[in-house]
Amino acid sequence: MNIRTDLAIECREMFAGEIAGVESINHDRDGISVTHVKITTPEGALKIGKPIGNYITIEIKQMNLEDEEICERGAQAVCDELKKIISVPEDASVLVAGLGNQYITPDSIGPKTVGKLLVTRHITSEGNNGHSFDVRAVSALAPGVLGLTGIETGEVIQGVADRVKPSLIIAVDALASRKLSRLGTTVQIADTGISPGSGVGNNRKELTEKTLGVPVIAIGVPMVVDAATLTMDAMETLSQHMSKNFSKNAEELVDAFEHGGREFINEALSKESTNMIVTPNDVDVISNQAAEIIAEGINRALHIK
Amino acid sequence: MNIRTDLAIECREMFAGEIAGVESINHDRDGISVTHVKITTPEGALKIGKPIGNYITIEIKQMNLEDEEICERGAQAVCDELKKIISVPEDASVLVAGLGNQYITPDSIGPKTVGKLLVTRHITSEGNNGHSFDVRAVSALAPGVLGLTGIETGEVIQGVADRVKPSLIIAVDALASRKLSRLGTTVQIADTGISPGSGVGNNRKELTEKTLGVPVIAIGVPMVVDAATLTMDAMETLSQHMSKNFSKNAEELVDAFEHGGREFINEALSKESTNMIVTPNDVDVISNQAAEIIAEGINRALHIK
Amino acid sequence: MNIRTDLAIECREMFAGEIAGVESINHDRDGISVTHVKITTPEGALKIGKPIGNYITIEIKQMNLEDEEICERGAQAVCDELKKIISVPEDASVLVAGLGNQYITPDSIGPKTVGKLLVTRHITSEGNNGHSFDVRAVSALAPGVLGLTGIETGEVIQGVADRVKPSLIIAVDALASRKLSRLGTTVQIADTGISPGSGVGNNRKELTEKTLGVPVIAIGVPMVVDAATLTMDAMETLSQHMSKNFSKNAEELVDAFEHGGREFINEALSKESTNMIVTPNDVDVISNQAAEIIAEGINRALHIK
Amino acid sequence: MNIRTDLAIECREMFAGEIAGVESINHDRDGISVTHVKITTPEGALKIGKPIGNYITIEIKQMNLEDEEICERGAQAVCDELKKIISVPEDASVLVAGLGNQYITPDSIGPKTVGKLLVTRHITSEGNNGHSFDVRAVSALAPGVLGLTGIETGEVIQGVADRVKPSLIIAVDALASRKLSRLGTTVQIADTGISPGSGVGNNRKELTEKTLGVPVIAIGVPMVVDAATLTMDAMETLSQHMSKNFSKNAEELVDAFEHGGREFINEALSKESTNMIVTPNDVDVISNQAAEIIAEGINRALHIK
Q: How large is the average pLDDT for residues A168-197?
């Protein structure tokens, strides 16, 4: 199977029943659904296709601009879940990296979030004004993308982290989702960092505790679906339709199509689709909104005790 | 048939052989292919699905940033074809409208072009400096999009045109293409203006001589493909693959799939896909480049005699 | 005297004592000072140098990003004062025009505000969803600047207003202030529209009920000081300094300087300074913040009953 | 003396006659004036107030958008002078840092230049396509500003340089000039890097070979004048005016004003003016243009042999 998604919750949903080494707990609060997928063993990691760790998915059911209250709740949910997953002391310094390309709307959520953060490191390090007692040192960086800088995102972050020496790195990024309905309305928080192959079709280097030396929390919002995934879903729908509507002896063909066809198409599309983005029409509105929610959630989690 | 494309050349390509009321002439120059599709009769218009008029398609074969020469040639080709199609006197005033949403990268080509134009109307109307003799009065406007202004693009342009009283309107817009390979590398110039249903999934009002009172030239660059089109193409490929690889008696099913399936999927997808954009990964680079070529082409056509 | 300011409150402050035809009332609320300057007679208008009408100045004393509460109060004050000054019915349609150049940070407050507005006209005019009952039709436009469009701001607004037919126009603009301390922290709301010579050194056309046919409310935030004003203030300080510190018989010279010098310098500078902008170092932060406050204030005033 | 300028040529101009340890050579070519100020001794450095090194100033006399030819010549002049000053081998890798705040128009020239560069490091390091033979590895970074990132520009560059290991760093920045007439039309290229106190009023850390370990070439364009400088110049003009127009015995007072006043005002203004920017009205146009010229100059110097 070759469904492309960066969401652990979608990987989990592909399986019915229990999976050894994978726990999943869900609860709803105020129109927001929070699902905690916990991968605990190498077997679970292999099955799900994600590293061992915690993946919290916040789904904001009726996200829209008019409803400030639901946005407010989204930010609070991001704050609450972040606080649970942050393992460094209250005054430990944090570097937030806004990944992605600010010039491509669906990929701009990381840089946009950085622009809305309450950055304090330069105040604390000066240490010469009243604020310095109660403020955690937060720095922020939009490292750009390989095509525009010639430098791997991971290299920039590693180089800066070597200087800034944060106790924790938070990486904000646009993700790919399987379902159109999740675009812009879902936030995934993971304590695993970012692994190769994630993001909007870029082969990013690993951004993990292993490579960066400090814990890395990844916050992502699905902003694109994979073009191959989109097509496969359409064909799934079609083959179900065919099964229902054609004679019995057609079944073997449907079956052949199901399997032979899927593989064939997947291969044909996957080459092209790595060069394509599928994103909603109102991506300008939803990316601004999501950046607002994430930035506000991070600001609260890092600065309010 | 339900293939969505804004390019007359692609509509034409769906038919083999001659079409009554439709002429098509192609010539190549310096790595640039120019195709003139001329729809001359109502029958031709019905068949092609576009109004009677002239559609010139400029295909820049090896467009890339490194090659300034091919960009230079693209701009010159746009200039040359524009000059042929412009029917107003050399000193008649022109209003350029950059359609689309500047905050969505693939839809930003119109506003980006406006930002690069040589605007002169305010100099000429003042009429008090040496320049005023040799410069055509050019004004430019990015009217925004309905969702952000609450005003139809056509209403803004019409209102402004009532004041500015141009002799010609040039509308620059992002288009939808059938083929991925055309995105960002093709320019269509049409003397028909813009008709409803064009553009990146927006139901735009007509921008034509009929509604605006002066000739309207539309310049468009395909920046998106239709998600339904993408899927249909994938399924076409699959059904060809199935025909070849399955037993004889499968043919009837393939046939059924071809026809029944196509219609079914098309319907299922078309609802969703009107809310989606499919665009290349490097849309930031190609939209800048295309805006540069179009703006330079317009500047030369309007200001250099 | 030749002090350049767009704020009625600063014009008023240049005079000590009562002025016939000019009333001024001030009250403070929650760290916000609201001053109502009312010009009631032609004599008052001549003296102050502003048209007859109401000028409400909201001064947000401790505006800063960290203090969300003071921002919230600023938006509420803008809403409250707007509601008092709006004379059209609750369901009358409104067009908001965001004046200025989005590419020059201190002049971008109008376009930035437009981007944050809750625009509804396209929903109500369709009239086909549940919202249509309780929402006022609001449209918004950033008309651009003469140098980039070749079209007078007033022509664009007039043309669009002829189509959209609003009952009220609200024009948002960056202003010039005399005092540095007011930049970004003051909002002026006037029911007089905008008169020639206002704004960031541009000779704008009149945007008033007389020219546009409907009431025009101007909302402005001082974002620049005049370079000549800045220098004159410095020289004022100097001449006071000189009076104190030099011998008695120097007085005549100080006096000569005061008068002859002022005129001379004013003339010398005014030519240059019309081509210059003096703005604070953190103009990016304060223009975003002011746009947020104004947009939120307008949204509340127009949409919340 | 307390005139603030980042241009060596302006520092030089304050002295009449020869200065020991400072050479200055000028030549004109095609409407472009190139002045080479060479500081050779510690005494020269002290006198001029700049480190020992080479400062090449390119003044583009009639820079304007309409004249593509003069822009082309400007880019070529930047290329030519850069090539003379670059001391690393033809295939040595280069990191370009675009300093400044992209959200403040006069300070955005560095980030804008980065966006126009031909970045190649990621192609060469992959080393797997035909291009890799003839292309120098160029990377580029806009490190942001302290207020938005909480990280000193120098820390970001140093951290990234530790990873990327360039043989040369080119830092592009907006400068302060003494003369309004130089804004946007002058390019200074220095082989000394950037020293504390330069730039648009920010106290930047040193970016020099000493701190970064490799040669640092600084390219700067004056985009602002100092508010204090502006006022001092106005007062200079005034005192000349007074000398001419008042009686003989006023001289002593003029003299007192000249000296006592200057110091007083300078002190009074310098506090305020560090928080202010004085920049031309058309700063959007001239910053785009200057970024274009510098980027094109760098591209030619680094990639064309």
A: 89
